[in-house]
Structure formats: C-alpha cells, structure tokens
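Regression test attached.
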Amino acid sequence: EAGVTQSPTHLIKTRGQQATLRCSPISGHTSVYWYQQALGLGLQFLLWYDEGEERNRGNFPPRFSGRQFPNYSSELNVNALELEDSALYLCASSAGRRVYNEQFFGPGTRLTVL
Amino acid sequence: QQQVKQSPQSLIVQKGGISIINCAYENTAFDYFPWYQQFPGKGPALLIAIRPDVSEKKEGRFTISFNKSAKQFSLHIMDSQPGDSATYFCAAGGTGRRALTFGSGTRLQVQP
C-alpha cells in the first residue's frame, strides 16, 4: 500500500513569491493535515482538511491557505513568502474525522525562501 | 495549555542500554498520545501510541508508560541499537481538535 506522497521534494523561492505544495493521502484516508517543521524545531500544526472542508487551523497568518480536492488530495499555498517560512512542510493523513485514527506522514517538502 | 514539554533535548546511550524520553502535558482534554520516530531527511513515522485508559503499552522493544494524574508519559527503548539513532517526538491529540500537538523532540544517539 502506497504511503502519503508529497511534491515537490524541494522548492526554492524568493521573498514575496507564492509557493504551492501538494499532498496525496493514503488510499481510503479522507483527512489531511499540514504541519510546519522549522529547522531543529518540533512540528507546528497548520491546517486540517476532511471531506473537502477546512476543519481546523493552527496559529498561522492567513497567507497560509489550502484546499482539499474531491479525490482527497490537498494543496498548501503560502503567499507573500517570508524568510522565516523556510522549513520542512509535512503532510499527514488519517482515516477520517468521525473516528480518531493514527496520522501517517509523508516525506515532506523542503521550502527554502531566499 | 496546548503545550507538550519533552525532555531531554538530546540523549546518548550505549548499545544494549535503555533510552528514556519524557513528556508532560497540561491540557486534560488530550486523550491520545503517540510517539514518532524521524530519521534525517524523512517524515516522522508512527512508532507507538497510547490512550489514557491504560498505564502502559508495549510493542517489541518500545514501551509507553502513562501517568494520568501527573499528566506525564514516557517512551522506553529497551536494548537500544545504533539503528534506533533518530529524533523522537511525543505528541498529544484530542478527540475534538484532531490535530496533534508535538513536543520539541529528542535526538537519540546510540553508540556501538
């Protein structure tokens, strides 16, 4: 069974640009979570999508946004990039919001803002 | 109140020894406590998880001990191996919020 996949692996942008990161959950999973892992730090929750809707959002500015598609894949958009947005962005999926299930992570997208 | 505090920040253990990592939480609404293992350049992998209705859960060499009254939980790695060298994160989740709150991580180095 294929795990969570993310693309691209690496992304280099300059300040003020926009970045788009993509995530495909494990087959059958309807929930997708996005986390930010800055260098040497723990994971900070960004966004949670389930069945196409945003269910919860972490303490991040509105320029961090996303969406979930009908096939449950998800996209994270970061607008007006700042240097401190440089981090590993991790996507996780779980079976759905009605039952609390384990979250399984993808390999991440390394975003570098110059 | 959403914080999860993890210690130590780094840990060096000899091969065959016991590695112990501790976490403490404040929010009593948390009802799910997983541990993740992360190797450099990889995403975190779920290692083991526990719910508050049990005080201990063991899977192979990995054991979670949970103290509900103290709001603390810990990971014990028995017979630690060099292949266990990685960063370990504890986390806590609540039924309503779903998103996990992570500790700051422990970098474990098992020396041969």
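Expected vs. actual: identical. The mean pLDDT of chain B is 92.
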